[in-house]
Specification:
The longest helix is centred in the last third of the chain and has 20 residues, at 433-452. The chain has helices at 21-26, 35-50, 68-78, 86-96, 131-136, 157-161, 226-236, 262-277, 313-324, 408-416, 433-452, 470-481; strands at 7-12, 57-65, 102-109, 167-176, 179-189, 193-196, 202-214, 221-222, 224-225, 247-253, 291-297, 300-302, 331-336, 339-351, 371-376, 382-387, 396-404, 505-506, 510-517, 520-530, 536-546, 561-567, 579-582, 586-593, 598-608. Helices cover 22% and strands 30% of the residues.
């Protein structure tokens, strides 16, 4: 029996305004990885959040050509009505009339599907899911999954960006009001345009389009549902569904990367699944959280290697196994004020093994030698890798894992620090001082561990020239702190430190750690400012300590320089002389850049702001 064509609904601007599709497509920003890998990452994270168990699900990726009869259904039934905007309509026509139309399908099983109401304007109870409207209607919905890996937020834009015609078809076996529901709908993101509406009134349109069945008020379209949806999905070649095989299939029309190099696209998918989701593929992952991935090119399945057997993921797998052990391996990362566990870090080293496909090609995510720490939230999806210092002996490599604490305050801080693409932790943009401090302190420890793990044996500089390691500088600090070194250089005048018991005071700066700066080693010192009174200033003197003598014996000595001052909330202070504190109190970190063959000390004094 012939099917009735779906109805096109193009979103008109409301009187109070809307977001244009052009702007919607830009919301993803500039992810640090390839578009294909961004698509994979976004889709799998959302499948994890929608999993019926504790994050475990099966996800299929299938690249396939459309059979002639499937293309006919797409042309005559799903997309029979085309948008008025010429570019959107033209790109659809180019795909539907091409000689070899391909699609990329991403299908998950064992998930809740796109559940909940299909209208975005109706209020729901706190317990009712809103996945359908969050994915297909709304933009930037708030994070609703506790300790989730991602949400149907801005990252879903990548699905449209991956299509040359910015269009997808969605099939979901889900539930609504406690009953099984099958839903099929198509959507496209074009460009804003002007056209006559159904009442011949000249209107402005956002460029967002949906194909479905008309609503009662003809103000939007709803998905095709029930048996009609199941029949249409089968005609399009979607995988079989039933209430026992729930989940969502997303068909990306005319994917950008297929005609250019299909094999390359398959490798990118394989790489992204391994690089970002290996923790969920390990043998020791609890069954309820374990992911299962299958990749198909047409009807041919491409098996995915085990992370435990795939260098360098074998090192990260060992580090993760240590963190999951009882008692766990590695070290606890803490903040001191307030005392709080931020997460746990474990690093392992091993012999470097030869790379196998999909690693080893030009531009691969997998390095030739591993020296990095993978960071993740408790959901155990890799956010990013922090590179560190290579082991000097090129027969060896190392890998580490940091997992943030599952404490709600800590986990939420890291979640808020993630950009739309979920590919970084950016504490600088956090408005909440507690959250900013949590992420900043953890990242400082992670970066330091990445730089220090290979020491005292350090890799030579890239140009092959000999250069000192941070471990050598650390030895100089040891002698300086024992009083063997003598500070040198001119002293700036300033008021005496300390102050009365009730007045302002500053503790003696204590050496905290070494970091590798852009131009050489950086010593980080901690000090505490206390006391009441009017606004006052901090006077800092970074002093040089030479290895084997004083600066006066070395005419070429370079003065150390204060490059950064940060308060306990992560806010940076200005670098004027003196440092104007105003009413700031508490713990401060002072970073001092220095020559590679020296150590430094810092003298701190307190005085009124007007003192010179």
């Amino acid at each position: 029996m012939p099917r009735s064509p779906l109805t096109l609904h193009s979103e008109a601007y409301s009187a109070s305004g809307n977001l244009a599709a052009d702007g919607y497509l830009k919301l993803l920003g500039a992810p640090s990885i390839d578009l294909v890998q961004t698509v994979v990452r976004e889709a799998v994270q959302n499948s994890c959040d929608a999993a019926l168990s504790d994050g475990g699900a099966e996800v299929h990726f299938r690249i396939r050509p459309l059979a002639p009869e499937q293309l006919d259904v797409l042309r005559a039934t799903v997309l029979a009505e085309r948008p008025h905007e010429q570019i959107a309509a033209g790109s659809l026509e180019a795909f539907l009339s091409s000689a070899n139309p391909h699609v990329l399908e991403i299908c998950d099983f064992g998930t809740a599907g796109l559940a909940g109401p299909t209208r975005a304007d109706l209020a729901t109870s706190d317990t009712e899911p809103t996945d359908f409207v969050d994915f297909l209607r709304n933009v930037g919905s708030r994070r609703s999954t506790v300790h989730g890996g991602g949400t149907y937020g801005y990252g879903k834009t990548s699905l449209y960006l991956a299509s040359r015609c910015s269009a997808i078809v969605v099939d979901s076996q889900t539930t609504h009001a406690g009953q099984p529901e099958r839903r099929v709908i198509a959507a496209q993101l074009g460009s804003a345009f002007i056209a006559d509406d159904s009442d011949q009134v000249r209107r402005r349109f956002t460029g967002r389009h949906w194909w479905g069945r008309p609503s009662g008020e003809n103000e939007h379209v709803d998905p095709i549902e029930g048996e009609d949806a199941a029949s249409l999905a089968e005609a399009l070649g979607f995988p079989e569904r039933s209430p026992e095989r729930s989940g969502t299939s997303i068909m990306i029309l005319d994917p950008r990367f297929i005609e250019e190099d299909r094999e390359r696209a398959v490798e990118l998918i394989e790489e992204a699944l391994l690089w970002f989701f290996w923790p969920r593929l390990l043998e020791g992952t609890p069954e309820g959280r374990r992911m299962r991935f299958r990749i198909f090119v047409g009807n041919e399945e491409r098996p995915l290697p085990r992370p435990e057997d795939f260098p360098p993921l074998d090192l990260f797998a060992r580090a993760m196994k240590g963190l999951r052990a009882d008692p766990p391996a590695g070290e606890v990362v803490r903040s001191l004020r307030p005392q709080r566990v931020l997460g746990r870090l474990n690093i392992v080293r091993g012999l470097r093994a030869d790379r196998v496909a999909p690693a080893g090609r030009d531009g691969s995510l997998f390095p030739e030698r591993s020296a990095a720490i993978a960071v993740m939230r408790p959901v155990e999806l890799v956010v990013r890798y922090y590179s560190g210092t290579q082991i000097a002996d090129d027969r060896f490599e190392w890998g580490g894992v940091f997992v943030a604490s599952d404490d709600n305050t800590v986990e939420e801080a890291f979640a808020k620090a993630e950009p739309p693409a979920h590919d970084d932790w950016q504490f600088e943009a956090l408005a909440d001082k507690t959250a900013r401090s949590i992420v900043r302190i953890a990242l400082n420890r992670i970066r330091t561990a990445a730089l220090e793990f290979a020491n005292p044996v350090s890799a030579p500089p890239p140009d092959g020239a000999a250069g000192p390691s941070l471990a050598g500088v650390a030895g100089l600090f040891g002698r300086a702190l024992e009083g063997e070194g003598q500070g040198a250089g001119p002293r700036r005048p300033g008021p005496a430190g300390g102050g009365g018991r009730r007045g302002p005071s500053v503790t003696r700066p204590t050496f905290a750690r070494l970091e590798q700066g852009e131009a050489g080693p950086v010593g980080v010192f901690e000090l505490v400012v206390r006391g009441d009174g009017p606004a006052f200033a901090l006077y800092l003197d970074p002093l040089l300590v030479m290895d084997g003598g004083t600066a006066s014996e070395t005419a070429s000595a370079t003065r150390p320089t204060i490059v950064r001052i940060v308060d306990e909330h992560g806010d940076e202070l200005g670098l004027g002389e003196p440092i104007l504190l105003g009413d700031r109190r508490g713990r401060f970190e002072v970073s001092v850049a220095m020559p590679a063959d020296c150590a430094v000390t810092v003298i701190a004094r307190i005085g009124p702001e007007e003192a010179k």
